[in-house]
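Researcher: Let's walk through a ligand-bound prediction step by step. First, I give you the protein sequence. Second, the SMILES string for flavin-adenine dinucleotide. Third, you return the three-dimensional complex as structure tokens. Ready?
Model: Ready.
Researcher: Here are steps one and two:
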Amino acid sequence: MNQYQSVTPSMIEELKTIVGAANVVFGDIEKLEPLSHDEIAERSYAHMPECVVRAGTAAEIAAILKFANRERVPVTPRGAGSGLSGGAVPLYGGIVLLCDRMNRVIEFDRDNMTITVEPGLVTNEINPIVREAGLFFAGYPMSLETCFVGGNVAENAGGGKAVKYGVTGRYVIGLEVVTPTGEIVRLGGKLMKDVTGYNLLQLMVGSEGTLGIFTEITLKLMPLPRASVDLLVLFETAEAAIAVVPRIMTLGGIIPTAIEFMDKTSIDASCQYLNETINSRGAGAMLLITVDGQDAAQVEREYDVVGESCFACGALEVFVADNHTTSERVWKVRRNIAEAFKVQSPHQSLEDIVVPIAAIPKMVSGAAEIAKKWDIAIPCYGHAGDGNLHATPVMNPAWTDDEWHGKLPLILTDLYRLTVSLGGTLSGEHGIGHKRKEYMPMVCSPAHMEMMRAIKRALDPGLILNPGKIFDS
Ligand SMILES: Cc1cc2nc3c(=O)[nH]c(=O)nc-3n(C[C@H](O)[C@H](O)[C@H](O)COP(=O)(O)OP(=O)(O)OC[C@H]3O[C@@H](n4cnc5c(N)ncnc54)[C@H](O)[C@@H]3O)c2cc1C
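Model: Step three, the predicted complex:
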């Protein structure tokens, strides 16, 4: 039963007084439809909003959330909508609260090595600002050309540099948050250490827009590596490529920046989509390995050791991409795999499983067995150095839509059961949203689920902020 009120014309008038008439969309299906979904290929996860509000300040967001509690209207925060778990989908209609107007850099503080931004800044815009000062932001989701910093914090986004630098949460040191009841709270600041009470800052990170709306984000910056080299390593089979990953991680003293894995199906799909060619010489899979550091000679020594280890483990070829143009071409192929699959077929389920790194070979061979059992393709790619694989079940073209929708939950259950048996879990970086919530009991005990529900009820007693995500309240 929907416990919420429908948005009425008189409510719209009140919202217009908060954010201005130009920043409210109501009753215009064409303008509302693009905000009914994120980047999940299947449209069955979509749901129409009743209205869209583009807020410009924290005070406006606070007023909207107070209004929403009073009127019992759900509010779903939205960044760029590049999510892959349905987090920004307004499951119960109501208001979609767009953060795209809040895209300013508030302060670049060179001395404290921090940058403070609004949530609607595109992630890729940070590094050009701080590079000249010899600094960089280590967040590197493959969607960085479109996604927003607020969405990255809400999903605790990972990406292509997490093996060495970790995920977004490591760099979030300060937040201004509007609570679900409409209070404006500051958590953390420019501090490198802070144990003053519960770590509410990190509770917010990865909360998928269910516990608060971020309005200012302070990120820690890192010294810009002076040298960086990418290795493109070819293997005969996916199993051979993935088997090398734990070996590289235990080389002793070398922490690569990235170890990305792409099987042949993924490479071919992305190359076709981009009209690009990679000299893969018929290889069945590739690793894209980055090594970076401050000292070029050291980086060279390290990539020599990594390259030799790959050869020792059966690599067919190791190409060195030591200039920006070649590196960018290869990374572009990697970044566009998800988009390429989406264009090929909407009947696919981009998964985000994560297992301990030593279990990665078993995960890849197990996924191949599940593909065989169900007579489907499950291409695999992802952030292998983090144990994070985007295994993507794709519908058998001989099946009807109904067959696919009937079998997909069983296929996913097999995949998740295997993941859990290897010590892994449902999502490494894309989040649960509403796409994966029914599988949460496979990895979270009833007590664990109740702790999360209790936190949600304590912070959002009216259950108006992004309801129906992660779990049902
Ligand atoms: C081609 C492609 C590649 C991708 N590669 C990666 C990758 O490498 N690593 C990775 O981690 N993800 C990746 N993603 C997924 C996605 O880009 C990330 O989850 C990203 O962080 C979402 O940001 P967004 O601004 O698009 O957020 P949205 O999709 O708009 O929203 C995501 C969640 O954040 C919440 N939210 C948004 N703004 C706020 C705010 N201001 N306050 C509170 N909550 C908010 C929403 O309610 C929602 O729950 C990829 C997606 C695509 C399409």
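Researcher: And what stands out?
Model: The pocket of flavin-adenine dinucleotide is lined by residues 38-39, 76-84, 87-88, 99, 119, 141-143, 147-148, 150-152, 154-155, 157-159, 208-209, 213-214, 338-339, 429-430, 466 (CB under 6 Å). The mean pLDDT is 95.
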